[in-house]
Amino acid sequence: MRNWPLFRLRLTTPRLELRLPSLDDLDDLGDRAAEGVHDPDVMPFVFPWTHGEPADRARTTVQYHFRAWGEWSPESWKCPFVVVFEGQVVGTQELAGTDFGVTREVFSGSWLGRRFHGMGIGTEMRAAVLHLAFHGLGARYATSGAFTDNPASLAISRKLGYAADGVQVHNRLGEPAETLRLRLSRDDWTTPAGFLIHDLEPCLPLFGVSRTA
């Protein structure tokens, strides 16, 4: 689309492609959500969207992306990519910013279809959006967070160089649960080999970034 260049934005890594989803991609992503994202005995999300029935999880997934596109502004944006591995949509990786043109700070979140866990995909897709943030958009900091009983997510953050940035308590299914906040500085980031950004230039104003930033 000429008036929404984000649909041409792509991130590629040695094994993955990240892109804003087509309608077919959203169907596939909904299928991954319906199949399951995590062990049913745990809840890694502050908002427990994965507790619904499979069809509800699929529909909620599709609606989330429509809402992110519709509410996008340079002052407040969420960019949820689908992650494609060996030709198949396997999950989603989001990068978000509020007043990014001033703060130069981004937040990331993600989920991966359960049957694709343990393959290193989670680390690679997070590294892809960090490359976009630091190299493409000129971010100074990237933040993330995970419940303290979510070792897989915390391991990815440690592997990529994040440092602890405090603790926050959330209401998780009616019980208090601690989230570990995490922060990564551009000075502490080195992009791995083979990570590329495609067709970013026309998208920069939508991220609140000038072409001369």
From TrEMBL:
Keywords: Transferase. GO terms for molecular function: protein N-terminal-serine acetyltransferase activity; protein-N-terminal-alanine acetyltransferase activity. Signal peptide: none annotated. One of its GO terms (cellular component) is cytoplasm. Gene3D superfamilies: 3.40.630.30. PROSITE patterns: GNAT. It comes from the Bacteria. InterPro entries: Acyl_CoA_acyltransferase (IPR016181), GNAT_dom (IPR000182), Ribosomal_N-acetyltransferase (IPR051908). Residues 16-187 form the N-acetyltransferase domain. This is Succinyl-CoA transferase.
